[in-house]
Amino acid sequence: MLRDAGNLYNCTMTSPLSNIRIVLVGTTHPGNIGATARAMKVMGLERLVLVSPERYPSGEATAMASSADDVLANALVVDDFMDAIAGCGLVLGTTARLRSLPQPLFDPRTAAEKAVVEADAHEVALVFGREKSGLNNEEVRHCNWLVNVPTSEAYSSLNLAQAVQILAYELHLAAIGGGPGETLPPDWEPQPPERLEFYFQRLEEALLAIRFLNPAQPKRLMQRLRRLYLRARPDENELNILNGIVSAMLETARERSEAKD
Ligand code: SAH
């Protein structure tokens, strides 16, 4: 199983766009995959990852890609969403609707400017959902930020490849727009989703062990905590401290329950 989609690319380009991957999740219509490849290539994006597409490869995809068939040929196909975003320091999810308990929400221009600044330092994923149902909650909960293209209130759902086109255009504008207006702290390297996930599993275990989390009445505690950490985006040192705290909680809970026996 593929663990880090980033490592399979041999990037020689120096543009920050070479660190940005477009991820399509559960795409139904192969024409949208081809049109996405075209939308990407005209804006200088090359890295496409497909999570469990319904029909792919497909002549329809190739026809819609036109001269972007190389982007299709280089696309990675994976089964697991976590494989598609592995190794990414920033994961942006796109959504046509606003959700309860949302992550920070940006418009395409702001999101693209921030993504291009970060892509100088680490891998970035821009994730698009299924034509019918978008991204599910499980996928959204791995996104640091969400992006919404402002639309008419009467109808907010863009065609998938058209949504990709708008974001790709903004990324291109941000990339050619000169030097970054913003710089990242030099010693800050946010941890990728797979490391955070490991921490979340242990945190849940520890909160159960100290009886802070009541399995009968979880009250969306883990969702709220996930959202807090996704906003904070801990670096390696910080995550080591957090994991250390969890270890101490588990150890103390174990000692207490042994003392009672
Ligand atoms: N009915 C679905 C719409 C999915 S449209 C829903 O409610 O979520 C397919 C994908 O195109 C979405 O998952 C998203 O990635 C993208 N998309 C469509 N409209 C968008 C918008 N207004 N802003 C951001 N992304 C959008």
Hetero ligands: S-adenosyl-L-homocysteine
User: How many H/I helices?
Assistant: 10
Low-confidence stretches: 6-13
Q: CATH fold name of the largest domain, please?
A: Alpha/beta knot
Annotated CATH homologous superfamily of the largest domain:
SPOUT methyltransferase, trefoil knot domain
Computed CA radius of gyration, to the nearest angstrom? 20 Å
Number of strands: 7
List the SSEs and their pairings.
Elements: E1 20-25, H1 30-41, E2 47-51, H2 59-65, H3 69-73, E3 76-78, H4 81-85, E4 90-94, E5 105-106, H5 108-119, E6 124-128, H6 137-140, E7 145-147, H7 160-176, H8 193-209, H9 221-232, H10 236-260
Parallel strand pairs: 1-2, 1-6, 2-3, 4-6, 4-7, 5-7
The site of S-adenosyl-L-homocysteine has 19 residues, from helix 7.
Description:
- This protein has 261 residues and is of the alpha/beta class.
- It folds into 2 domains: 5-177, 3-Layer(aba) Sandwich (Alpha/beta knot); 193-260, Helicase, Ruva Protein, domain 3.
- It has helices at residues 30-41, 59-65, 69-73, 81-85, 108-119, 137-140, 160-176, 193-209, 221-232, 236-260, and strands spanning 20-25, 47-51, 76-78, 90-94, 105-106, 124-128, 145-147.
- The chain has a 7-stranded parallel sheet.
- The termini are far apart.
- Mean pLDDT is 92; it is low at 6-13.
- The structure holds S-adenosyl-L-homocysteine (SAH).
